[in-house]
């Protein structure tokens, strides 16, 4: 099945949505994207699994990486796409086939001679599932050279805003011990669930920081996300587990963030279960500053963790910018505002072709 | 399969253990018990399901009910029974086939003319499972007249002590509400698990009463026995549930106990899920006082809930007295001390045949 990437980005978004590609089944779409890119002049096209990377080699002083994932969350009766006025409905319209459509359409329609940066187009698989399967992570491990650049723009949904850097995240499990007893003789036991009272009270009273970096305000949060304990209705429980998620500003690294949690929850046995460092906004880098100027928008902090952190880990300033609405991602009623798709195309075209 | 109820109670205990009768499969044992009782002089024998009730009708001024359940928890590689020195090992040795053996042996060997009380022997099914299946409950509903008496002795394991009355128990579920949000934007949500901090702190600080009634000290307890909450590792949870068990002294009824819990946990949404009223020790009743004298033991409070409360609900003073060890009930290594079986037989024989 072929893709006509020369059609307007809004129309192309619809074609991409209709080309279903739930995580793990991106192969046919990756084939179509690869075929479309191979047919364009002046691009070196590489492939790894279901990730496709295309690069210009114009000898420009800077290289900009534009990246987007091809996969979507499972379809929820929302394919094929459906247009109502200025809105296009369907699975992946916001997250993030509209961004992918803008990328493909620009790759096909911006003349090489007008480019002020060399470009790298990255289309990858398995962003919506477990991090171990993430296609961008795999590319960074196997083909780091394919991802080199001075700025990375990840076209995740931001509603046309620039969302810079991202928070880090870590999870710990606090295990509260106790001693079992029959609940009719509760004084013979030691209630592990009761012990959670102090821990939860500390979390409820916790005052998170708000940190401003490059004009972006990062607001932290320390939250219990799961609790479980109990043996039976007549037993004093000997164990209670609380899972706590710390979302931290990118001025802390994982080790510093963990040390902070250990300080707040001093006295509790904590086990780190997973972590991902954040990404500094990096807006002081010249290529990033020029991008901000091109959009004419005030950058803001990205709160969720996104793959921009993978670029940041490679030393590449990275930001999120895309036409989709982050609040509609993964919803049954997902849609994208077509004027925002056109705006993203216009903004990026201007940025890629205007000498700063 | 016949039962020889004339053999000593210790030996009869072994025969009863070897006659497996896990809850729900008591039929053959109930048949054997019924056959043995029908063969004895002067007893009216009634049957309902797998419960067997035998009564004397001697015109004595008082009637004593002796009751025991025929069923056991599931076998755990501990049938047939095995004797080691003074101990008899096996499923149900303590809970409560040793008590049943004492009952059957006394029924067979105490001459009617020596009895100072009329007697009712109650053998019932399904005590170790859900209360809705309990055989004594069924008898109380269908054949209340079969259970009439001035004192009930339930031969549950007490290690040869008199455990009088029993605590009541009730369970409530406290539901803590909240509002979901992505944990990267935790301030947009309302964390239901954090709200449990205050509730659990109240439970941890709670000072339970100890109430003395008829010389027995009833110590209460208010305990969280289960907690659960959480949606996903990156979501502020909108619901947390805490199950709380209140074990209360028999000077409170269920309504009073619930009102107390509502007062301690004022401000929380509580749902009563199950309750069983306690039983006053009733040791001031003449038949009970005589029993205490016969044992020569100081009565103590029963902490767990037992079927004595079913007799108490019928207005019959009731106490627990049996040769088994309550701490061994339901264990793989369950055993009974054979000297305690002989002592129980001796004590009861004296009580039943001695004019007070």
What labels would you give this structure?
Succinyl-DAP_deSuclase_DapE (chains A, B), Bact_exopeptidase_dim_dom (chains A, B), alpha+beta, Aminopeptidase, diaminopimelate biosynthesis (chains A, B), Alpha-Beta Plaits, four-stranded antiparallel beta sheet, 356 residues
Can you describe this structure?
- 2 copies of one chain form a homodimer.
- Chain A folds into 2 domains: 9-165 and 279-353, Zn peptidases (Aminopeptidase); 168-276, 2-Layer Sandwich (Alpha-Beta Plaits), CATH 3.30.70.
- Chain A has 9 helices and 19 strands.
- An 8-stranded mixed sheet of chain A has the order 1-2-6-3-7-18-8-17, with helices on both faces. The first copy, chain A, has a 4-stranded antiparallel sheet with strand order 13-15-9-16, with helices on one face. Chain A has a 3-stranded antiparallel sheet with strand order 4-5-19.
- Chain A is an alpha+beta fold.
- Chain A has helices at residues 9-18, 27-38, 93-109, 135-142, 192-205, 254-264, 286-295, 308-313, 338-353; strands at residues 44-48, 51-55, 63-69, 82-84, 87-89, 118-124, 151-154, 163-164, 168-177, 181-182, 210-213, 216-219, 221-230, 235-236, 239-248, 269-276, 300-301, 318-320, 335-337.
- The model of chain A has no long low-confidence stretch (mean pLDDT 94).
- The longest helix of chain A has 17 residues, at 93-109.
- In chain A, α3 crosses α9 (338-353) and α7 (286-295) crosses α9.
- In chain A, β4 (82-84) and β5 (87-89) form a beta hairpin.
- Chains A and B meet through α5, β13, β14 and β15 of A and α5, β13, β14 and β15 of B.
- β13 of chain A pairs antiparallel with β13 (221-230) of chain B, so a sheet runs across the interface.
- Chains A, B: Homodimer.
